[in-house]
Write a structure and sequence with these properties.
By secondary structure, the protein is an all-alpha fold. 77% of the residues lie in helices and 0% in strands.
C-alpha cells in the first residue's frame, strides 16, 4: 500500500480540526472563521485552556497542547506563525497563573517543538525587554 503524504494544513483546514477538537467552542470558532479571523480562533482556544487551568484540568490542557502541536507540525507557514506568536506565547501567561507544580507538569507534557519555541521566546524577551 502506498503512503499518501498529508496535505499541508492551511488556516481553513486548521479551523475544521479545531472545531472538532474543541466542541464547546464550535460556534465561536465558526463565527470567527466566517470573519476570516484565524488569530481570533487561536485566541479562543487559549482562553478556553486558561479556564481549564483555573479548574486545574492539567491532563486535558496537555492533551489540547499536543493536538495544537499536531496542527503546528503539519501547518503551512501562516498557521505555524500564528500558533507560535499566539498559542506558544500564551504559555508565559499559563506559567504566571498556574501553581508551580501544575506548570511543571504542563511543561513536562509539552511537545519538544513547543518547549524549544517557548524557551527561545523567553531568551528573546530577556534581550528585548531586559526581564
Amino acid at each position: 500500500m502506498m503512503k499518501v503524504p498529508m496535505q499541508t494544513i492551511n488556516q481553513k483546514i486548521a479551523v475544521e480540526y479545531l472545531k472538532f477538537f474543541y466542541p464547546p467552542l464550535r460556534n465561536e470558532i465558526t463565527q470567527l472563521s466566517v470573519q476570516d479571523n484565524f488569530a481570533g480562533v487561536i485566541q479562543a482556544t487559549i482562553n478556553y485552556l486558561k479556564n481549564l487551568l483555573q479548574e486545574s484540568k492539567i491532563n486535558i490542557i496537555a492533551h489540547h497542547i499536543k493536538l495544537m502541536d499536531w496542527i503546528y507540525r503539519n501547518g503551512n507557514s501562516y498557521v505555524r506563525t500564528v500558533i507560535e506568536n499566539l498559542f506558544v506565547r500564551s504559555f508565559e501567561s499559563f506559567k504566571k497563573h498556574a501553581r508551580m507544580a501544575h506548570w511543571k507538569l504542563l511543561y513536562q507534557y509539552m511537545p519538544v517543538s513547543f518547549q524549544i519555541i517557548y524557551n527561545e521566546q523567553q531568551k528573546q524577551d530577556e534581550i528585548f525587554f531586559k526581564k
